[in-house]
DNA sequence: GGAAATTTGTTCGTATGTATA
DNA sequence: TTATACATACGAACAAATTTC
């Protein structure tokens, strides 16, 4: 699915890119929730800090917003 | 803030000295929490292992104790 | 209302690899 | 070779907000 564990980019960046692509193609529409940290851990086989780093990157890019106790949501386009 | 990045002492030692001075002058009183590792990273512009080395030095000197999941605290005088 | 599960927030513990002096 | 420093990654504990039953 595009995550190349042997690639030069860190895993959290590759995961963020996968999520960003899903946002771009409408898999995750605006205002919808993206998978939880635990969900990303399971899907990509990484630890929670790594999943969190990916989400942090998406937040920095303005693609998602996170709400404590609820989840992370696709920012409104 | 007294940290001389061009000085002969390693950064982690200088950071530890700064914290030790704050403990001595009462800025961080006994049983109070000192800044987290992330806080030291931001304040002194270093990476986490370096901040941890500084704290390790303070623990070795008996000035602070660290508790997993909570933080590092000034030892009781 | 209350208890439990889910989810994110924060923090320290540990390990590996890379780069530099 | 050793010491220092950074980046990455996994593990674990504690905390707080939210949702669900």
Automatic annotation (TrEMBL), chains A, B:
Any one GO MF annotation of this record: DNA binding
Protein's GO biological process: negative regulation of DNA-templated transcription
Superkingdom to which the source organism belongs: Bacteria
Pfam families documented for this protein: GntR
Keywords, ordered alphabetically: DNA-binding, Transcription, Transcription regulation
Domain HTH gntR-type per the UniProt entry, residue ranges: 9-77
InterPro entries cross-referenced by the UniProt entry: Bact_HTH_transcr_reg (IPR050679), Tscrpt_reg_HTH_GntR (IPR000524), WH-like_DNA-bd_sf (IPR036388), WH_DNA-bd_sf (IPR036390)
Protein name according to UniProt: Regulatory protein, gntR family
Organism: Actinomadura mexicana
């Amino acid at each position: 699915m595009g995550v190349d564990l042997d690639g030069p980019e860190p895993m959290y960046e590759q995961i963020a890119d996968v999520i960003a692509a899903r946002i771009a193609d409408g898999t995750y529409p605006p205002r919808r929730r993206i998978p939880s940290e635990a969900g990303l851990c399971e899907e990509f086989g990484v630890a929670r800090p790594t999943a969190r780093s990916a989400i942090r990157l998406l937040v920095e890019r303005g693609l998602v917003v996170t709400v404590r106790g609820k989840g992370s949501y696709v920012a409104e386009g």
